[in-house]
Each structure stands twice: as structure tokens, then as C-alpha cells.
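Open question from group meeting: does this chain pack into something compact, or does most of it stay loose? Before anyone orders reagents, we agreed to write out a predicted structure and look at it together. Recording both the input and the output here so the notebook holds the full record.
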Amino acid sequence: MGAFKLGNMTFGSLFKKPETVLYPIEKKPQPEGLKGHIEIVASDCILCSMCERSCPTSCITVDKKESYWAIDRFACIQCGYCTTVCPKKCLHMKPGYAAPEANRHEVRVTVEKAPAPAKKKAEAPAKQAAAEKPAATAAPSANQVNAVESRDELLESKLATMDPEKAEKVRAALKAKA
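C-alpha cells returned:
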């Protein structure tokens, strides 16, 4: 009876697409949720060291003085926890695996510090004039209103990622404070 099953399988495979692919030329698509390797967007990184502190294997190194971020790919277990705690979301779990290497070493990425925004000369006289006005008569400027709106939008975006019960408690505390 086993020969009939084997013959049926062999005969059926003549009319199907092959299960294998020509690997170097063709690659199968990566399955959804595949844990590959950590990638960083260095321009977004603020060197806060949250990823370094949260890494269970201590494979990430962040040095503010020398402005670099480094990872030891041999020690990384691809848990992805560093990507969840990153406040700027500059770490990503890239599907696929890193290229194989013969020697163990750290992958270092130099993080360029963003230059401080230059103050406009027109803003300085406006701030002085606002400071000279009495507080009771001074209306909030457009910049102050925009700053408050952007702060509220930022707060709401952070509250949206929180646990709904905790977010409601924070909103209630903010309303009571205002």
C-alpha cells in the first residue's frame, strides 16, 4: 500500500509548482512577524540609553560623550524590547537576518547631534515687548497658542498609547489641575 501512496505523490508533483526555489536568485517572502535584526535611524536618535538599559543581554552600548550607538549582533536575541522602549522610535526590527560574519564585533553607528535651532532676530524684540506689557493686559501671542496646542496634541498622542484606565486617570488629574 505504501508504494501506491509514493507513486501518487510522485505523479501529483509532475503537475504542481515546485516547492523549492533557486535560493541565491529567488528568495521566498519573509513571513509576517519574523524577528530579523535591529536597525537604527541615527538621525532620530537622541542617545537617551533607554535601549541599553532595557536590553536583557546588554548587547547595546550607547555613549553620549563619543556620540555613538553600538550593538553586538552575536549577543542580541532579537527580542525587540529595545524597539518598544525607544522614545523616538528610531529602532526598528528589520525582517530578514543580518549577513553572516566570521568575527564577533560591535556594529557602531555614529549619531550626529542635531544643531540647536537658530533664533530669529525678529523674535527677540517681540519677546521684549511682551515682557514689558503688564501680564493682565497681554494677550497670548500666536506662538504661545500654537505651543499650547502642540503640547496638548503631543500629550494626547502619548495618552493614546497608554492603558485606557491610566490614561483616564491622567486626563482627570490634568482637568483638576487646570
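Observations to bring back to the group:
The CA atoms of residues 38 and 93 lie 5 Å apart.
Residues 133-140 have pLDDT under 50 and may be disordered.
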